[in-house]
Design a protein that fits this description.
This protein has 140 residues and is α+β, with helices and mostly antiparallel strands. It has a single domain, classed as 2-Layer Sandwich (Double Stranded RNA Binding Domain). It has 4 helices and 5 strands. It has helices at residues 28-32, 51-61, 81-100, 113-133; strands spanning 2-5, 8-10, 15-20, 36-42, 70-75. 16% of the residues are buried. Residues 104-140 are annotated as: Disordered. Residues 115-127 have a biased composition (Basic and acidic residues). Pfam families: RF-1.
Amino acid sequence: MIEITPRLAIAEDEIAVTFVRASGPGGQNVNKVSTAVQLRFDARNSPNLPDGVKARLVRVAGSRMTQDGVIVIHAQRHRSQDRNREDAVERLVALIREAAYVAPPRRKTRPTLASKERRLASKEKRGAVKRLRQGRPPGD
């Protein structure tokens, strides 16, 4: 089991990992060894994710989620398969952890009387400064 939060975990058999050839620098090694990792996680059909987390995961994953509800993560930062696999799993855990967080609802607040008075006083002061700057015609 891969622990996401203390109350949420996913089974390791829900994750499909394939190794592909990495692009970019790496010399001859990049042409011989498949070090990049493509991780696939079927979020829509996962029995371990609550419905609310699944719904938020669609928004959080964005373009990393396919139409079928499968999250695809491509990791090739490191030169070894093991480190790339760990990196891909960590990124998946971070995505699910972000989707598992529910922001507390915003409570409506009203400005205090003192803050209203401060605002009106500053407006009055600013208006007075602008009135003093107005050019008065001579003899007025």
